[in-house]
Design brief:
elongated; 4 helices; 79% helix; mainly alpha; single chain
């Protein structure tokens, strides 16, 4: 394995661990309001994953990049759906005449 691949795997594992710990520390009442901010971060992760997959150094980097693109995209879409559902809960209901 090349040094670049080992460094990339180290960054991936470390960022996964840190991300899990940060999300675990957020109280449930703050989770949904912070979702829109995390959507922006996930959007940046999608771009980084596309760049990582596009380098085509090894087949493993392409596969890991594809997995990263897929998971980050799912995270962005799910985040927007949860945020939209939460906003729908706070809308005033129209009174039918």
């Amino acid at each position: 394995m090349t040094e670049a691949l080992i460094a990339a795997l180290f960054v991936f594992v470390l960022s996964s661990f840190i991300g899990f710990e940060v999300i675990n520390k957020i109280p449930p009442t703050l989770h949904t309001p912070l979702m829109s901010g995390s959507n922006a971060i996930s959007g940046i992760a999608v771009i980084g994953a596309i760049v990582a997959a596009g380098e085509r150094n090894t087949n493993l980097s392409v596969i890991l990049g594809l997995i990263a693109v897929t998971l980050a995209t799912v995270n962005v879409v799910a985040g927007f759906l949860v945020t939209d559902r939460m906003l729908q809960m706070f809308k005033k209901k129209e009174i039918k005449a």
